[in-house]
Each structure stands twice: as C-alpha cells, then as structure tokens.
Amino acid sequence: MSSNMMKNAEVFSSTPVHRPGTGLPDPRILSIAIVTHGRVQKLQQLLNSISGSQLIHELLSRIIIVDDSPGRMNFNAKSPAMVDYVWLPERIFITRAKNIAWKRAITPLILFIDDDNVIKEESVLHLLKVIEKHPEIGALMPSVSYLSQPGRIWVYSAPFRKGRWSMDLTGRNSVEKVIPDYDLMSTDALPNAFIIRRSILFSVSGFDEEFTHNNSCDLCQRIKLSGHEVYASAVSRFYHDVQPPNHRGYWADHVVADRDRAFPESRDWTLLMRKIHGKKSMRSPLLYLHLAWWILQVDLGIILMGTPPGNFIGINVAFLKGFLTGARVKIFQYYDGERD
Prior knowledge:
The protein is α/β, with parallel strands linked by helices and about 350 residues long. The protein is about 40% helix and about 20% strand. Strands 1, 2, 3, 4, 5, 6, 7, 8, 9 and 10 form a 10-stranded mixed sheet that branches. Helix 9 packs parallel to helix 11. It is globular, with a radius of gyration of 20 Å. The N and C termini lie far apart (about 55 Å).
C-alpha cells in the first residue's frame, strides 16, 4: 500500500469495510454517484476533475453513472474498470436514478453529484473528514460557486425561510470577498451535491420515488426525523457549470433547456409543500401565492431568454398539470407525524 493510501486508511479507519482476504481496513470507502441526461460534455468535464486527484482515486471504490438519455453516452474515464455505467433508454428522472445508483454502491459513504459540476480534491477530502469525525451527521453538502465565476456564490446552504413555504438560498449570487471563517451551516435541502452515509439511506428506505425530480428536501427532512443531522460546509467548495447572473433569464435556463422537467418540478413542489404544512395546506392561500410567485419568476426568465411562444405556453401548461397532479396525490405520512 502506498504511503498516501496508508495515511487515508488510518484517517478513515472507522469504516467496517475490509480488503478481501485480509484483515486490513480497505481505504476505498467512497462511491461517487452521478445521474445524467443528455449532457455528455458536462459529464466528461466532471469525470476529468475526479480523475485529476490521485488521493480521491485511492479512496474511491467506483463511479456509478445512471444515464437515461435516448442513446448511450461515450465518455472517457481514468480507470474504466472503476466505472459502473447504467444506461436506461427510457427517461426515469432523478429520484429513481439515484435509488438505482446507491443500491449498486458497496461503500459506507456515497457522494451524489449532478453532472454539471467540477470538484476539487481538497473539498471532497474535507467532506469525508467532517462526516467521519461527526457520527451524528447523516449527510453533508458542499458550498457551491459558479464555475465561470469562481468568486460568485451559487449557494452556501438552503434552509427554510420563515413559514417554510420556500428555501433561503444563502449567499445566492453574492461575490465572496472574504472566505468564511466558519464551516457547518444549517440546511433543509441538499441541492447539487452531497455526501451521505449508505446506512442512512438504508434506514430511511432511500429516496422517496413519490417525488419524481425534486427529492433532496424530502430526503433531508426524513434524515432529520431519523435522529441525524444535516449540514452544509462553507469550507468545502464545488463549482457549478450553469449560467451565471449576467445572462438574461439565467434562473429559468434549466426548464428552457429541458422542457420535460416542468411537469415533475411543479408536481414535486406541490407535494412537498403539502407534506411540510399538513392536511390543511390545500386550503391555505399561501400555497397558491407562493406557487404563483415561483411560476411568475420562471416565466420572466423564459421571456428574457427569448423562448418561442409555443414553448412558453407548453411549459406553463405543464406547470399547471403538475400542480393539479401533486394536489391529488395521496399522502400517507406528513413530516409532522399527521396521517391521512
């Protein structure tokens, strides 16, 4: 074993995984799970950033890629044998894809990361050290900057706003003039990327496939209900390859680029708000006000991006259908313990 591998085996010696045929701890305690759809260039960029770190590779068991693109992707990996590529010709969206990914992992820790990211070695190692040092932490997300503007924050963390009808995207679009002198921040969602204990996923039965697309807030609530804590790290930093704020309508880019996301995003938002606010939520005017405000903001972005009228109408019809579907879903367990 190399000196680096021996060092990391000692740092993470709490893992129960052992090297086959020996009694020595296996330093390969990490799996990386990536779900992707039709973005091979971004996926390749992410894989290149992973392969650029020898230390990560010494800790890495496998990279699990779940791809529901219409055709198989062609990409390069530093260690092809380490890549577990699952191609599904029919679109299944994010939640089911993540469940497929984590069930194929065998390591105690799994790093979920969206395909449009670039990672740094020190940031991944920091997440690993924090979660290994604090057994009470079930999941931990990094802070995120824009890849094209590294000094501008995409988000530090995502706790609920007062009233819990929306998230406070802490630091959103601010220019980071001073690096934070603290680390752990509260969060109620895990957007973009996070590291999690595989045992936690078992204990909460994985990602709830009632949510098709937006599932990280639901997962976060269920982890907390299981007695574990969830944080964001201001020290660890990933880089998100998305449009920065100087692009017109940048906040609507995701739905314009992928119109199929409009229906599940609206449906999942409605379902989440109902689970958060209980049985009477459908009678609350705040539900409809926040829905309208969210859609109006997206519509403004769509208009600023110069989207053709047909796409604009189609996206809004999908939003409406998603809301109506989310309003009809039978909820068996709310986060506050209420049952229908």
